[in-house]
Specification:
- The chain has 14 helices and 16 strands.
- By secondary structure, it is α/β, with parallel strands linked by helices.
């Protein structure tokens, strides 16, 4: 009798789920990951680009120019203000750190005025704090900002980064003269990094530059990269964050099943704590980056960040979803009347569910969803405990499989839940 009842419950769950506009993605991940033992969970850290861009004027703006001082200050704060304890580990340099030319040996070199101690000294300092250093280079002839590119220098640049003590390389794709050179360059640099013998996380922008021409080969990309950018740079605006979410959900059938331990889809930086997002929009970015198993690379000024933004970025329950060891990327389950429902399977048969209100007029909106339609019909079969994590934590108690979950969502805001069987 128990077996028959269980089968009936499962069947009913699938029937109920079909009553809604629903897209469920699933499938065992089969592609091999880059075998360097790194990024078993999404990378966490800080990256300068969105907030500080290519500011090289240290005379006029000494506190916000791209210099060793900036990265040393961020490293100090990552330890003293609890970021390291929350899991943020990498201090990452983006474009504009280089001198305009290579040295006489053909090696990249840091700008001597802005990085007087060179990258080796900066790496030593970052390591002394128990953190890791990331750096930036480009697969083409020049970086996006016009500094020396790595084309024709992959081996020497990989060796240089290893000798400096670099722990992550963000490899951009500007100024590459052909699709073949782009693909070959990304593959070659991956192999060159591994040949150095140093553990260096490899962050690619390979698919971003392939999409205008043809669909990227994610099986191949995953074999060479630890994470990869698919879409345009994030800006400090809701339109930008929304466009990234739109692209991800529209292409989820092509990308979601390629994410997993060792390799991740990268929707770009967290801009929480800056100027462009409302509080509800910051909650949305944090919640959905967790659902998407995205690298959490903040781009903000840790010297001037509100306590509210800091609390959100350091929320241990949300970070635990992002870092869940099962390593399955979440997906958009449905969209109806400007409400989106996203879900992500977690370890120990738990699930994360996010509900986002995309309507930008009016006030908070109520939304009701059948419990049986969540988590492929099995997340709460026969019941589960539900905890709301964002925008504030609340224990919602035990819910039976046949019940509903009702919530209220602010415009452009998100409510994030954890469902688990205790």
């Amino acid at each position: 009798v128990t077996m028959k009842l269980k089968s009936w419950n499962q069947w009913l769950g699938y029937v109920l789920a079909l009553h809604f506009p629903t897209l469920v993605l699933w499938g065992d991940f089969g592609a091999m990951a880059l075998d360097n033992g790194l990024a078993r969970t999404p990378t966490m850290g800080w990256l300068h680009w969105e907030r500080f861009m290519c500011n090289v004027d240290c005379q006029e703006e000494p506190d916000s120019c791209i210099s060793e001082q900036l990265f040393m200050q961020m490293a100090e704060l990552m330890v003293s203000d609890g970021w390291k304890d929350a899991g943020y580990e990498y201090v990452c340099i983006d474009d504009c750190w280089m001198a305009p030319q290579r040295n006489s040996l053909g090696q990249l070199q840091a700008d001597p005025q802005r990085f007087p101690g060179g990258i080796r000294r900066l790496a030593n300092y970052v390591h002394s704090k128990g953190l890791k250093l990331g750096i930036y280079a480009d697969v083409g002839n020049k970086t996006c900002a016009g500094y020396p590119g790595s084309f024709g220098h992959y081996d020497i640049d990989a060796q240089t980064f290893a000798e400096w003590g670099v722990d992550l390389l963000k490899f951009d794709g500007c100024h590459c003269d052909s699709i073949k050179h782009l693909a070959d360059g990304y593959k070659y640099m991956s192999l060159a990094l591994n040949r150095t013998g140093r553990s260096i996380v490899y962050s690619c922008e390979w698919p971003l530059y392939m999409w205008p021409f043809h669909k990227p080969n994610y099986t191949k990309i995953r074999q060479y990269c630890n994470h990869w950018r698919n879409f345009a740079d994030v800006y400090d605006s809701w339109e930008s964050v929304k466009s990234i979410l739109d692209w991800t959900s529209s292409n989820q059938e092509k990308i979601v099943n390629f994410a997993g331990p060792g390799g991740w889809n990268d929707p770009d930086m967290l801009v929480i704590g800056n100027f462009g997002l409302s509080w509800d929009q910051q909650v949305t970015q944090m919640a959905l980056w967790a659902i998407m198993a995205a690298p959490l690379l903040m781009s903000n000024d840790l010297r001037h960040i509100s306590p509210q933004a800091k609390t959100l970025l350091q929320d241990k329950d949300v970070i635990a979803i992002n870092q869940d060891p099962l390593g399955k990327q979440g997906y958009r389950l449905r969209k109806e009347n400007n409400i989106e429902v996203w879900e992500r399977p977690l370890s120990n048969l738990a699930w994360a569910v996010a509900m986002t209100n995309l309507q930008e007029i009016g006030g908070p909106r109520s939304y009701i969803i059948s419990i049986a339609s969540l988590g492929k019909g099995v997340a709460c079969n026969p019941g589960c405990f539900i905890t709301q994590l964002l925008p504030m934590k609340m224990e919602l108690g035990f819910h039976e499989w046949t019940s509903s979950l009702k919530t209220r969502i602010n415009p452009t805001g998100t409510v994030l839940f954890r469902l688990e069987k205790k």
